[in-house]
Specification:
The chain is an alpha/beta fold and 277 residues long. It has two domains: 56 residues, Helicase, Ruva Protein, domain 3 (Orthogonal Bundle); 191 residues, Vaccinia Virus protein VP39 (Rossmann fold), CATH 3.40.50.150. 39% of the residues lie in helices and 19% in strands. It contains eleven helices and nine strands. Strands 5-4-3-6-7-9-8 form a seven-stranded mixed sheet, sandwiched between helices. The chain has a two-stranded antiparallel sheet with strand order 1-2. Helix 6 packs parallel to helix 7. Bound molecules: S-adenosylmethionine.
Length: 277
């Protein structure tokens, strides 16, 4: 069967996703798919493409089909064990890199809720600094560990499976803590996209009744783990979440600066004991 026939036959999948799936199965670049629409595929390959396109039409995210997601211009391995890194999260990484650029003495960094490792591994790659990646999900850390090898930073990263700071030593303090913890409220759950609800790990998204339960526990423990002169960067989103977490940080004694994403939404809260500028 020809590529064009497969693309014409398949319903419910947008054209770009089709090209992505074909490029993945044929192990070629997307342009090569588009330039060879007349290419005939053997029966087994055609069957594999059709099966994956069917999964896509039923809502499986493209990144879980191709097992790759680009983040900060690097290619991350992803599957159902981890949240697919979102472009909005690049705002947090940019914020962290700006601070580390200005304060090269910050050496000890922790990525809380590391998932695929998107945030921490990019920081390790761009700065050469050591990172501790913490996640409550061992399955997620297995993916992060693979990504650390793929990105060539395995020797810079320690992995720790822990419910927040439970597994870290109290005497160990960090210069910078980055966190993208779950922040979806139960009331917002129904309005999430079907693909997200059905496929992405609930532990990565579910922030409890008001969406701020994990962040509430995180901010309570945070002061014990941050050095004087250190800072925390938290990704937030959703109705009212920025306000809730900002208040928690202020109540814990932090000065808080808010960073917006490219769509103008309040996306990252940067907390520090003293002004960072
Ligand atoms: C929103 S995802 C972020 C993943 C990744 N950092 C990113 O930005 O793409 C949240 C992550 O926090 C982890 N997590 C949830 N509750 C946690 C807890 N109590 N302690 C540590 N990690 C937790 C989840 O397993 C998930 O990997």
């Amino acid at each position: 069967m020809k590529i064009l026939d497969i693309m014409t036959k398949q319903e419910g999948v947008d054209r770009l996703d089709m090209v992505n799936v074909l490029a993945f199965v044929l192990a070629v670049r997307q342009e090569e798919v588009l330039m060879n629409l007349d290419r005939s595929l053997d029966e087994e390959t055609a069957h594999r493409v059709s099966a994956l396109l069917k999964e896509r039409s039923q809502g499986k995210p493209l990144a879980y089909i191709t097992k790759r997601k680009e983040f900060f211009s690097e290619s991350f391995f992803v599957d159902e064990r981890v949240l697919i890194p979102r472009p909005d999260t690049e705002t947090l990484v940019e914020g962290a890199l700006e601070i580390l650029n200005k304060k090269p003495n910050m050496k000890c960094i922790l990525d809380m809720g590391a998932g695929s490792g998107a945030i921490g591994l990019i920081i390790a790659k761009k700065t050469g600094k050591r990172i501790v990646c913490v996640d409550v999900s061992q399955k997620a850390l297995t993916v992060a560990e693979k990504n650390s090898r793929d990105l060539g930073v395995r020797d810079k990263v320690d992995f720790l499976c822990s419910d927040l700071f439970g597994g870290t030593r109290r005497e160990k303090k960090f210069d910078m803590i980055v966190a993208n913890l779950p922040y979806v409220a139960q009331t917002e759950w129904d309005s999430l996209m079907r693909d997200v609800k059905a496929h992405e790990p609930r532990t990565a998204l579910d922030g409890g009744a008001d969406g701020a339960e994990v962040y509430r526990r995180f901010v309570q423990e945070l002061p014990h783990y941050l050095k004087t002169g250190g800072c925390v960067l938290c990704e937030i989103g959703g109705a009212g979440r920025a306000e809730q977490v900002r208040e928690m940080l202020r109540a814990a004694g932090f000065l808080v600066v808010t960073k917006r994403d490219l769509s103008g939404n309040e996306r990252v809260l940067i907390g520090s004991w003293t002004s960072l500028s």
